[in-house]
Specification:
globular; seven-stranded mixed β-sheet; EC 3.1.2.22; fatty acid metabolism; Rossmann fold; PLipase/COase/thioEstase; alpha/beta
Amino acid sequence: MSVLKTLIINPRSGVKPTATLFFMHGLGDSSAGWSDVAQMLSQRPSLSHVRFVLPNAPIQPVTLNMGMPMPSWFDILALDDLSGAEDEAGLLKSTDEIKKLIKAENDGTAQGLDGHQIPSERIVVGGFSQGGAIALLTGLTNQNAVAGVAALSTWLPLRAKIAALRAPTSKNLKVFQAHGDADQVVKYEYGQRTVSFLRNDLGLAEQDVEFRTYPRMPHSACPEEIRDLAAFLEKAIPAQ
């Protein structure tokens, strides 16, 4: 059982969920920060079968912010995707907690499922910034293949070890990667390098790794990006 508290948006009354989107917020945020987006997506007729699970990161000190405690999926030592200065233990711990939530969906023991099981192939794991890093790690290392990963304004951590950590079932992973080209926090080239790594180093098919650029968008989201995310979800976890 995961220790993470979650905000859950189930399909409207009388509709059984047949798919799930997990979405992890960014540094210093909470599930509430993305609840409006989840509500908006849930109201689309094409996604009315999806339940939205928004976990909350634990509160812990963050080195980059002078050791100040805040909601964080892992410690950030440097904002440089190539420095190699990473909190490996924190990254793997949070990834394991998301996997526990996925297993609860698989087993039908998750809150609000009432015994109804949702298999991994009907689950998309997504996140923004720091949460997107956890989403990518989870999608690549979960033993049962997930339907896809939605990675917004983020990067892939643990690149030196990910080839050894990844699950064999991840070879056909579908990834939606989105980034603003004016991102002042997680640089646009970090997203570009992640896409290149997924395709060239991990061998994911080019057509399975979608990369969308949003001109002049900073470290944020925009309506066009949310529409593109919805389109990805419609393909990855369509109504049955």
